[in-house]
Amino acid sequence: MEGNRGVLNRRAYLKTVGASGAIALTAQAGCLGGDGDAATLTAATAPGFPPFELKEGGELVGFDIDLLEAVIEETDYTLGSWEEFEFDSLIPALKNENVDVVAAAMTINDERDQTIDFSDPYYSADQSILVAEDAEFEPATLDDLADRPVGAQSGTTGEDVVEDQLIANEIISEGQYNSYGNYVLAVEDLLGGNIDAVVLDTPVAQTFASNRPVTVAFVYETGENYGFGIREGATELQTGLNEGLQAVRDDGTYEDITAKWFTE
């Protein structure tokens, strides 16, 4: 019966926290000035990246929101508030000690790892090329994007693919790249016919394809892993988040949150 009680607690948690989206966390945040000198965390994310983080009825919701809240629930820390930023402002906010942890489908890569630290990976993804459903354009490789206007979100690994693979290899020119503050704006421009393709993380592309007239033309394999971002040297918080992440994997909460936000 102990196991059943655990399931009920988890479901109750998702009902009160996950299903209704992020709690209106308006408490005064006790942002960590250093490593472990306070127990209240300020979390940051960048809405516009469904299903990881988005706004529904003005409320912040998504996979990352539910997961980080469940992870922190397993630690000695408490969550004070969520702060919202453009994606490329998240790391500066973390370094300036305006927030303590970032949950924004942030890929762990060498460039970011030089300025911040990460939790253990919590999700794996590749990049997808999204096109309009009614377009006759059906690319199957990056070379098929030659001389086409392409979009991606600023500061993301989708933008890295555009810059490192398309522009650097002269498949498209710099002038043919369109950078956006979030992927919702990029998809709107795609549907408006202003660009021919968007490069973005596969689960996000699949979410857009499920509720907009767009389709995933092909997947460009990058083997990326997402992690929660924290300030360099915050080893106690890093350990706490890693232990919390393992706990939600072990008790089935991770599986429940995944099932809630990702449908095949």
TrEMBL record:
Transmembrane segments: none
Signal peptide residue numbers: none
GO cellular component: membrane
Keywords of the record: Signal
Pfam families the record matches: SBP_bac_3
InterPro entries found in the cross-reference section: Iontro_rcpt_C, Solute-binding_3/MltF_N
Domain Solute-binding protein family 3/N-terminal span(s) in chain numbering: 40-264
GO molecular function: ligand-gated monoatomic ion channel activity
Ionotropic glutamate receptor C-terminal domain residues: 40-264
Domain of life: Archaea
The protein's name: Glutamine ABC transporter permease
Organism: Halanaeroarchaeum sulfurireducens
Source taxonomy: Archaea, Methanobacteriati, Methanobacteriota, Stenosarchaea group, Halobacteria
